Amino acid sequence: MSNGYPFMIYGANGYTGRIITQLAAERGLKPLLCGRNQAAIAELATRYKMPYEIASLDDKAALDDAVLSVDVVLHCAGPFAQTARPMLESCMRNKAHYLDITGEIGVFEMIAALDDDIKRSGIMALPGAGFDVVPTDCLAAYLKKRLPTATQLTLAFAGLGGGVSHGTASTMLQNIGRGGAVRQNGQIRVVPDAFKTRMITFDQKAVQTVTIPWGDVSTAFYSTGIPNIEVYMAVSPTILRFLEGGSFLKWWAKKNWVKNMLQKGLDRFLNGPSDQQRQKSKSIVWGEVRDLKGNSAIARLTTPEGYTLTALTALAAVEKVLSGKAPIGFQTPSTAYGADFILEIKGTTRQDIAAKRDIQIQ
């Protein structure tokens, strides 16, 4: 057990971290706020009357001092490809359970590969405790229960309203030109951008979707054992044209100086959707499983807007850990808390769908 505080929000001053901190305050929770930006962290701590520490992820001693004072770390500072490992290693050294809100396949795979070390340290490591990947992971596990013989899993999602945060846009920018990913015969395979497209009905009408390297390409395999997995996202015609064609544009966007220029624009102009936008928006997650005999099952989740849902699911997971529900080792949301975990979130509904009415393949 810790010497001080029940849990830490690391990266509390980021867009999503601020939403989580505000929600924690509304629930009467007093997490330790932590990050490397002293002015921003101190301002938040003063506003919400919460304790805080300043620790950079590359300052091992300071980070260990902060982590040693808590039972659980909720890690919210991306890009997680750069930040997850030092925080996880500190959690293992200091016996603090680790949760994060990543959606990055490489991070899930890195943590899964460290499962034996994590178990020896006696902690739980649950990456993807937000919109990436709680709703999709729970839906995948639910569909696997409906069709235990499934060999193919397809997931898709659409955000209705809302927008993109600075951190999410930055991660997307850094991944330009790296292609997509699917799982085939149990192995993750790198594929071109817009590897496949598909028309899927989310809310009354069919919309265009395209494969993306979403976290479930990694996590759904550990949750369900299904060897073939694809994840799709609803996109506008403009974005689809860029992904499908535009090889020159993508080549241009891969240049470091172009990325740096675009990053400066994000830093200056993009903050993320407002509270009002998030309140008026929702997300829909769709999933289908099939087996070798042609049997299938389809279901759909309707949830709060993605950033709002991230705050709700992340804090719900933290509260479960604090109550003693922390299975040791690498976990996905559904292996830790079951397929119905997502239904504990207010504003979430799940519906079974007849396949012939819900899917159109392009």
Describe the overall structure:
This protein has 362 residues and is an alpha/beta fold. It has 2 domains: 5-127, Rossmann fold (3-Layer(aba) Sandwich), CATH 3.40.50.720; 134-306 and 343-360, Dihydrodipicolinate Reductase, domain 2, CATH 3.30.360.10. It has 16 helices and 17 strands. The chain has helices at 15-26, 38-48, 60-68, 80-94, 105-113, 115-121, 134-146, 166-174, 216-224, 237-244, 247-253, 256-269, 275-280, 306-322, 333-337, 355-358; strands spanning 5-10, 32-35, 52-54, 70-75, 97-100, 124-126, 152-160, 180-184, 187-191, 197-203, 205-211, 228-234, 282-290, 296-304, 329-330, 349-353, 359-360. The chain has an 8-stranded mixed β-sheet with strand order 16-14-13-7-12-11-10-17. It has a 7-stranded parallel β-sheet with strand order 3-2-1-4-5-6-15, sandwiched between helices. A hairpin with a 5-residue loop joins strand 13 and strand 14. Helix 1 (15-26) packs across helix 14 (306-322), helix 5 (105-113) packs across helix 9 (216-224) and helix 8 (166-174) runs antiparallel to helix 12 (256-269). The longest helix is centred in the last third of the chain and has 17 residues, at 306-322. The chain starts with a strand and ends with a strand. The model is unreliable at 162-173 and 357-362 (pLDDT under 50).
